[in-house]
Design goal:
480 residues, alpha+beta, Outer membrane efflux proteins (OEP), 11 helices, disordered N terminus
Length: 480
């Protein structure tokens, strides 16, 4: 009767496990991602600068050569490649979990059973059996045990838990490749930014040197006029002080050039050396910059693609953590030679094999599984928020760069007019000073103003180029 009752319970237990399995194997409901705008600042042209290859986008061949060197030597990029290899190894580990493991086993040991135990009495009594020949008699109270053969263990993925773990590992491998691409886009933008900042410093140095020459001429002029009684020592001192201040600016800019060159050398993987560069800003700014459409940016930008893949990987982890509550089907087996005498180990009668399969399910104290499930749920939500943030950040960067290009273009027009006007003012002040209609203070003010205006104009032109580079990077341009 008891046997009948136990047999009757088996279908009930099986049905319970089946119903639980049907519920837990349903896909986890994933939260909604952010809805992105359809256009950038009203632009509808699908042809954006992000589609351009960086060799075409950058027109300075010396800059192109520097970028090529950086892509070969940059240490951050090399570290990213190794992270890809680590992710690839995780795929191999996940693939291995789906297959049976087979290991070779050569082992030996022994045991002394107590005289007043079932094993001790049984072994002692067995040796008196007439059915045992000499080879089968037990060696004594200390029982050796030798084994040479193969052992195997295999968890059959009946619910898809291991398959989800493999999917998570593969998706993270793809995400690591996107991370490398993001480093490439950032590296190209960094090299170009440092290069144009260096060219802007070269321009500032030439402006300062030109103004030093003008101020030296003004000092010589006022000295001559002092000798002729048309100026005094105060004028000489103030013009000389202005000259000394401008000369100090020259060395300040020279130090900035050294620092900028060293920073650029670090990016390209070189020790400090002079950077070969053009003498002018070669990059031509287009009249109208097209950003394309957001859908292209979302597909092209590596950090967004990486965030999306991380989201998918965490979703697979969450699914696997849920399926861990279901029973697992495990099969263990061994095949080999087993004997209590080393001399008989490889005899035909020592051949031994075994196979065992069974379902195991966590029933009591499942806190570890619940904790892992909660962690996977939180990680999945975090990945969702990270993806949404990356999309918001991308739109913010594109919008800021577009507006900066537009505004710096207007600023550049005004600054050009300001510089032209102030250069005329310097010439006029010198002529008036020579004829006695202007003071040395007016010359000082005019020269200081034109120096500041020329430096500001150089800075505006640099900011225009940097905004264009930043727009190119924020649109996902730069990796091939």
């Amino acid at each position: 009767m008891k046997t009948y009752k136990k047999a009757a319970k088996l279908p009930v237990i099986g049905l319970t496990l089946l119903l639980a399995g049907c519920k837990l194997t349903q896909p986890v409901e994933q939260s909604k991602r952010i809805d992105a705008p359809k256009t950038f600042a009203g632009q509808t042209d699908s042809t954006g600068i992000g589609n351009m290859q960086w060799r075409t986008f950058f027109q300075d061949q010396k800059l192109v050569a520097l970028i090529d060197t950086a892509l070969k030597n940059n240490l951050d990029l090399k570290m990213a490649v190794q992270r890809i290899e680590m992710s690839r190894s995780n795929i191999l580990a996940a693939q291995g979990a789906l297959l049976p493991s087979i290991s070779g086993d050569v082992s030996g040991g022994g045991r002394k059973f107590g005289d007043y135990t079932m094993d001790g009495v049984g072994n002692y009594d067995t040796n008196f059996s007439e059915n045992l020949n000499t080879d089968r008699r037990l060696p004594g109270p200390f029982m050796p045990d030798y084994f040479v053969g193969l052992r195997s263990a295999w968890e059959i993925d009946i619910w898809g838990k291991l398959k989800n773990q493999k999917k998570a590992a593969y998706t993270r491998f793809l995400a690591s490749e996107k991370a490398r691409q993001a480093i490439v886009t950032g590296l190209i933008a960094q090299v170009a930014t440092s290069y144009y900042e260096l060219l802007a410093l070269d321009t500032e140095l030439r402006i300062i040197q030109r103004n030093i020459a003008l101020q030296q001429s003004a000092v010589e002029t006022v000295k001559i006029q002092k000798e002729g009684g048309r100026a005094n020592e105060l004028g000489v001192q103030q013009l000389t002080a202005q000259l000394l201040n401008t000369q100090s600016l020259e060395f300040d800019v020279r130090q900035k050039i050294i620092a900028s060159e060293n920073s650029l050398n670090t990016l390209i993987g070189h020790f400090p050396e002079e950077i070969v560069r053009d003498t002018t800003l070669v990059q031509v700014l287009p009249d109208v910059v097209q950003a394309g459409i957001p859908s292209q940016m979302l597909k092209r930008r590596p950090d967004i693609q990486q965030a999306q893949l991380d989201l998918q990987a965490n979703y697979a982890d969450q699914q696997a953590a849920q399926l861990a509550f279901l029973p697992s089907l495990n099969i263990t087996a061994f095949l080999g030679f087993n004997a209590f005498k080393s001399s008989l180990l490889f005899s035909p009668g020592s051949m031994a094999y075994s196979a065992l399969g069974g379902l195991t399910a966590p029933l009591v104290n499942r806190k570890a599984l619940k904790g892992n499930q909660k962690r996977a749920e939180a990680a999945s939500l975090e990945a969702l928020y990270a993806y949404n943030k990356s999309v918001l950040t991308a739109f913010q960067e594109v919008s800021t760069s577009l507006k900066k290009l537009e505004n710096t273009k207007r600023i550049n027009e005004f600054k050009q007019q300001e510089v032209a006007t102030l250069r005329l003012a310097v010439t006029t002040s010198k002529d008036l000073f020579s004829t006695g209609y202007a003071t040395y203070l007016e010359i000082i003010a005019a020269q200081r103003s034109v120096l500041d205006a020329e430096l500001n104009l150089t800075n505006v032109r640099k900011e225009q180029l940097l905004a264009l580079i930043e727009l190119y990077r924020s649109l996902g341009g730069g990796w091939e």
